[in-house]
Amino acid sequence: MTLDAIRIKTDEIVDFDIVSKMLDLSHGEKWRQFRSKVQRPILQPQTVKKYVTPIELVTEDFIRYMENARDDNGDLPHEFDNDIHRWSLECIGRVALDTRLGCLSPNVTSDSEPQRIIDAAKYALRNVAVLELKAPYWRYIPTPLWTKYVNNMNFFVELCSRYINEALERLKSKKVTSENDLSLLERVLQSEGDPKIATIMALDLILVGIDTISMAVCSILYQAATRLKQQDKMAEEIRRVLPDPSKPLTYADLDKLHYTKAFVREVFRMYSTVIGNGRTLQEDDIICGYHIPKGVQVVFPTIVTGNMEQFVSNPEEFRPERWLESDGRLHSFASLPYGFGARICLGRRFADLEIQVLLAKLLRRYRLEYHHEPLEYAVTFMYAPDGPLRLRMLERPT
């Protein structure tokens, strides 16, 4: 389920042409055509490799922010989950819009552009299901929820269009000898010649990516802080791969962090941030003996399947090693945090990159602890720890 599944009224959108394209691209042949235009540059490993250094620079700024935000005990502030959203937006902005948005500035206020982007993305993503699945009064009268949703979309379209127009102007005077000289955004602009395609891509990456990546990171850091044995094992692996903490990261370095990546996969298995993947059938089908008519939405509940005994050996045990072993029961489709097949998440490689860089930089120097009442996980639009993420951040021995 994505934001482009909502039908927008033509007289309420700043640039209806862009949003109407998003709506037309929800299903079928038009979606396939759009996907074919953007998936090649987004999904190529060499594209992701170009962003290791930019994401590392953003993450170093974030860790410096964390260092300064600690109290005398080393505890991070109650609103640390919003700080994670700021880091996530800064990363996505660097990838999707070719710019630093200034999210990690100490002077960011509640009415600043970065915070407005975060708040609008949260609101849009967490309320799209209400608009889709409840009685659609908004089709006939401008309900408060609908009005705020439209205002959010107006804001995002204006924002993305501004930065993409700036990138287009830079591209006109840029000397390009090969595709390697181009950023992701520039490649899409050059290959398609239509800024609106690039705008839709950026909207999708930002709107869907900010909240999901942030909530996933909240869950990963909370699990690391409450499972110190596994956290220390990650830190040992990171120290072994990165003996010199001042040396810049490379994609090859990240590729060697096998246990760290297994830890993330185990968090996703047991505490799947995305509770399920919805698909609207384009034709009648038979699933497990049931006839499902065309147009019905089918949901694959990955939050359930990842914890089922028939698919995973001892599913109640948190054991990252299971992803590194050949024995035991572990169905390859039991956990699908990014979906699967033609509609697999476009930004999954960048999401993995951001998470791996953050863990590599943070756990190389710091130990995370949690000294408060355990947090319960709550199901909203996603599945994440419910309550202040009051982590303690302590320097590791050099």
Give the strand order, joined by hyphens, for the main sheet.
Answer: 1-4
What is the CATH topology classification name? Cytochrome p450
Supply the CATH class. Mainly Alpha
List the secondary-structure elements in sequence, H or E. Answer: HHHHHHHHHHHHEEEEHHEEEE
Q: Number of helical segments?
A: 14
Global outline? globular
- Tell me the distance between the termini: 46 Å
User: Oligomeric state of the chains?
Assistant: single chain
Layout of strands and helices, then pairs:
Layout: H1 16-24, H2 28-43, H3 45-49, H4 52-69, H5 80-96, H6 113-133, H7 144-172, H8 184-192, H9 195-226, H10 228-241, H11 251-255, H12 258-270, E1 277-280, E2 285-287, E3 290-292, E4 297-300, H13 302-305, H14 348-365, E5 366-370, E6 376-379, E7 383-386, E8 391-395
Antiparallel strand pairs: 1-4, 2-3, 5-8, 6-7
Helix pairs in contact: 1-9, 2-8, 4-5, 4-14, 5-6, 5-9, 6-7, 6-9, 7-8, 7-9, 8-9, 9-12, 10-12, 10-14
List keywords for this structure.
14 helices; 398 residues; 8 strands; Cytochrome p450; mainly alpha
Give the structure's gist in a few sentences:
By secondary structure, the chain is mainly alpha-helical. It has helices at residues 16-24, 28-43, 45-49, 52-69, 80-96, 113-133, 144-172, 184-192, 195-226, 228-241, 251-255, 258-270, 302-305, 348-365; strands at 277-280, 285-287, 290-292, 297-300, 366-370, 376-379, 383-386, 391-395.
